[in-house]
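Annotated sample (chain length 40).
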Amino acid sequence: MSAATSRLPGPPAISLAQVDQMGGGRVELGPGSGWYEQLG
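Output written by the structure step:
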């Protein structure tokens, strides 16, 4: 998972479309917060 602002939307969208086609329309996508807490 990564923040939406750190990726181009095209490649993940293509991958999701392919998985959706293979699974017969059974893909669920949920947005992540993209939060990274620096430790230390």
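Annotation: Residues 27 and 35 are 24 Å apart (CA to CA).
Annotation: The chain has a mean pLDDT of 75.
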